[in-house]
Structures are given as C-alpha cells and as structure tokens.
User: What shape does this take?
Amino acid sequence: MYESKNVLGGELQTCCQSPVTGFYRNGRCDTGPRDFGLHTVCAVMTAEFLEFTKGRGNDLSTPAPHAGFPGLKPGDRWCLCVTRWKEALEAGLAPPVVLEATHAASLDVVSLDDLKQHAVSS
Assistant: This one.
C-alpha cells in the first residue's frame, strides 16, 4: 500500500465501516499496486450519482448478497474510483467528498480545488 495520507496532508481517516468500504475492505480509501481503479475518493452517495454510475455499468445500489454487498443508498459513504468521480464531476453530478478520508493519490487525477468545492465535513 502507498503511504496513507489524505489530500490535506494529514493521516487518512476512515471513510465507512458500515458498509465496509475500500479496495482492501478496511473502511479506508487506501490504495496500492493492485488497486488499478484507484478507489481513493471517500464520497457521500447521492441518488443522482447512484443513477449516474449505474448508467455507466457500475450499479452500486443493488445488493449483491453473494459478494457480501448490501447495496448503497443516498447518505452512505463509499470509496469511489477517482476516475468515476471525475466523470461525475464533468457531468455535473459529483457526489460530496470527505477530504480527511480521501487518499492523496486522488490528486494525480483531480485537483484539490475541485475536491474542496464538493467537500463535506467528516
């Protein structure tokens, strides 16, 4: 795993434990060499974003019990792929982000200013 710093330069905080999120399913938006999707943005789900991502082929709202996935609903926090968050930003549908729980690796793809414009308090 890469060093666990958030986009503000501090220690990466937990995004969500219920449901447990993150590429490593540790509740944090940690990343490493096997995380090709860069699941680094801690986002607060909105109905609009869930519909947007479903239309892009990644249905996060439908439960998948065989995978232990309960399905997400508006208000849930989830570690999103930074490129999907950027797509949603460009479409005007970016969900809010928790900066303290968003991994610094996100800054390789999106700007801190864009993230700050969509920030909510942790």
